[in-house]
Amino acid sequence: MPDLATVPARTALPSRRHGGMAACLVPMRTRIKVCCIASPNEAQIAIAAGADALGLVARMPSGPGPISDRAIAEVTALVPPPVATFLLTSETTADAISAHVRATAPSAVQIVSHIDPAESRKLAALEPHDRHLQVIHVEGPDALQLIPAYEPCVHAFLLDSGRPNAPVARLGGTGRAHDWAVSAAHVRATEKPVFLAGGLTAANVAGGIRQVRPYGVDLCSGVRTGGHLDPQKLFAFVSAVQQIDGESARAT
Q: 64 preceded by cis ω (within 30°)?
């Protein structure tokens, strides 16, 4: 296993956008965010495979991959730039999210609940130097109505397949794809970078990129076997993303 500090990394969240009304004419490669990272060893595997960002899942009402805040802080302290670390928090108030960020020291926070937009605005004021990514759970076309509420206060969106209003909320890690037509409309409607998540695998990611044109893709269960990060599945996924990006570049 390569030493974490010496693995070459790929830059995450540069200023040019992939998709959206401000899409650059120069082809952009699709960023890759590997979620449910459980340990420094899994972080090493993901970075060696070419991940731009790592997702670290804190306590959740349900779903795979949660680890302790102490374990999250251990990983964030070791990951070298320019790889980004995303804290996935289920906290719903600005004060609680801010405290969670300060306890774990990620480079960005991923807010997995549809929080009150007033709390989103307050968080931007409390943590002006941190990047905030708002998850939108695509249960139907109504998801597009959430863009204006959050867009002024976040740096990016992530479109997932959770069911936040279920009896036991599911806020990610479903292994299900959602309606990519809604996701494509979201990308066209916002100036902010958009990550596509939900049921992505090496077999279907090319179709997702072609249809949605996201800034990045995010996955958890699609690259895990028996609950552990599977290097072969991950390298196959990265290869599939690189192949579709190459095809898009040649077609431009």
A: no
Which residue from 22, 65, 59, 6 is spatially nearest to 218, judged by alpha carbons?
A: 65
Which pLDDT score, from 0 to 100, does residue 9 have?
37
What is the CB-side half-sphere exposure of residue 230 using CA atoms within 13 A? 15
Beta carbons within 10 angstroms of residue 6's beta carbon: 7
HSE of 185, CA atoms in CB hemisphere, 13 A: 14
The fraction of the chain above a pLDDT of 70, given in percent, is 83
- In SS3 terms, the chain reads as CCCHHHCCCCCCCCCCCCCCCCCCCCCCCCEEEECCCCCHHHHHHHHHHCCCEEEEECCCCCCCCCCCHHHHHHHHHHCCCCCEEEEEECCCCHHHHHHHHHHHCCCEEEECCCCCHHHHHHHHHHCCCCEEEEEEECCCHHHHHHHHHHHHHCCEEEEECCECCCCCCECCCCCCCCCHHHHHHHHHHCCCCEEECCCCCCCCHHHHHHHHCCCEEEECHHHEECCEECHHHHHHHHHHHHHHHHHHHHHC
pTM of the model: 0.86
Q: What is the pLDDT of residue 126?
A: 95
Query: Is the pLDDT assigned to residue 43 strictly greater than 90?
Result: yes
Mind listing the pLDDT tens digit for each residue in 134-179?
A: 999 897 898 899 999 999 999 999 998 766 665 655 556 666 778 8
d(C-alpha 109, C-alpha 241), whole Å: 24
CA–CA distance, 235 with 222 (Å, rounded to integer): 12
**Tokens standing for 173?**
């890690």
Nearest to 127 by CA among 147, 146, 111: 111
